[in-house]
């Protein structure tokens, strides 16, 4: 991707912060509305899909590599007239109008409206083997990657709602799902636990944690894991074709903490059926506000909504022209 330096000081009608499916789709729609949007890509241009290999649930592509899809989205936004800048927003002041923005490069700008599309990151355990096999048998999204484990055995690591929901979903594909939890009871909602315990494909492994993921190097792929007892520290190898880390997600909402209303977990609160936040002129889309679906296609849809909401808001303020 081509790096571009943002102008030192200028004013925008619309600034988009974040460059996943939500951000790029918002840029396409905003550019077509002649709003001359600027999109600042952030620390991970392209978002989570840049570390995803095969994507089989993007409409129009039976299979596409995640990084390739994001390159195409960026090119589409540029072709429509959006300005795409390789930089990171370090400060966003929503207490003044127009909103004030500072970037890591030293660039400063103001904007009449802002679309936040900074996304969320899956929480990882931090194991070297976990990082080595990411995208090659290690995943943090069952709905993204479950299809690849038809008839195979998988492990799910975690004990909350996310872990139980992922385990139940994976039973649609896997021959066996083992849920590994470091305690002797789950934190998930009781109704989810009841469904889990009744399912014939799911086995619980209590009082264990993931110590290491094992696999082959050529071709790269997971073959199993080593689990550690949280009671006596003993190690237990277990075969598996895939390992799903399901310990939650962290929305990238640091920029707006204390400025926007947030929901539990740090997700930005939006009005039902819209992308409007608690501050007029600020809109949020994608995984930053969505802790339910977390799909590329739903993020893109929200990016469209955010651009249309921003266009309507700017027009109502008399700021859509110029």
Ends: how far apart?
29 Å
Label the overall shape: elongated
Low-confidence stretches: none
The count of β-strands is 19
The main sheet comes to: 7 strands, mixed
Q: Structural class of the secondary structure composition? A: alpha/beta
Radius of gyration: 21 Å
Number of helices: 7
What's the order of the H and E elements? Answer: EHEEEHEEEEEHEHEHEHEEEEEEEH
How helix-rich are the residues, as a percent range? 10-25%
Describe the structure in your own words.
With 322 residues, the chain is an alpha/beta fold. 24% of the residues lie in helices and 29% in strands. It has seven helices and 19 strands. Strands 1, 2, 5, 6, 7, 8 and 19 form a seven-stranded mixed beta sheet that branches. A hairpin with a 2-residue loop joins strand 14 (208-217) and strand 15. Helix 1 runs parallel beside helix 2 (66-80), helix 1 (21-32) runs parallel beside helix 7 (296-316) and helix 5 (161-170) packs parallel to helix 6 (190-198). The two termini are 29 Å apart.
Explain the layout of strands and helices.
Blueprint: E1 9-17, H1 21-32, E2 38-40, E3 54-55, E4 64-65, H2 66-80, E5 83-85, E6 89-93, E7 99-103, E8 108-116, E9 120-122, H3 128-132, E10 138-139, H4 142-145, E11 153-157, H5 161-170, E12 176-180, H6 190-198, E13 202-205, E14 208-217, E15 220-229, E16 235-239, E17 242-245, E18 249-251, E19 282-284, H7 296-316
For this entry, give a set of tags.
7 helices; single chain; alpha/beta; 29% strand; five-stranded parallel beta sheet; seven-stranded mixed beta sheet; 322 residues
